[in-house]
Amino acid sequence: MWQLVINTSHKHLSLGLLKNNHFVDGFHDEAFKTQSELILPRLKHLLETHHLTPMDIHQVYIGLGPGSYTGVRIGLTVVKTLSLVNSMEVYTFTSFDFFLPLESGTVLLDARSSRAYVGIKSNSKWTFQGILTLDEVKERLIGPYFQDAHLIDKKAKEVALSEMCENIIHHSQRCNDVHALEPLYIKAI
Predict the structure, then answer these.
(1) Phi and psi of 155, rounded to 5°?
(2) CA of 144: how far to CAs of 121, 141, 157, 186, in Å?
(3) pLDDT digits (tens, 9 = 90+) for 126-162
(4) For the chain, which terminus, N or C, has the lower number of CB atoms within 10 Å?
């Protein structure tokens, strides 16, 4: 069974191709403000490299954010279009689950204006998911740190695309109505 993972919620365009829950190939390219231009050529290349068409994909996993609202909408548009030509199963996941495949740590995603989308996980449980100022983030940290840790002068732990994709298979929810999907938008309180 072929599976496709798409995450466009951050500055990277992440596409992962899996077969029976095992990573086969993918792209994790920096694509800040160019995701709309790159996603279709990268997806086409990925499928053609493995002699596949969209009809061969049985399941697609799509990131809903938080992160770049426009970026998430790009990924959602691709998934909604694919679902029109193929009756694939669609699953959703959060950016936090995608970027933090470990039991504990902190995901930081730049929310601009000295703020960050923050996910804090301890012992495999999310203890916080929201938006904080960078000063508030420093008070709550649990290492290791993922993605935009430079915002608080920390070094981010690198995670392989294969690990992120294989992890997300187990941390996603089935979507029954793909056309009702919307980006996960977190506002500051």
Answers:
(1) -95, 130
(2) 10, 9, 7, 23
(3) 999 999 999 999 888 788 999 999 999 999 999 999 9
(4) C
Delimiting residues of CATH 3.30.420.40 domain(s) in the chain: 2-95+160-180
Question: Distance (Å, rounded) from C-alpha 161 to C-alpha 172?
Answer: 16
The CATH code for residues 2-95+160-180 is 3.30.420.40
Q: At which residue do the structure tokens 């500051």 appear?
A: 188
Structure tokens at 175: 């979507």
pTM exceeds 0.90, yes or no: yes
Per residue in 35-92, pLDDT (tens digit) is 999 999 999 999 999 999 999 999 999 999 999 989 999 999 999 999 988 889 999 9
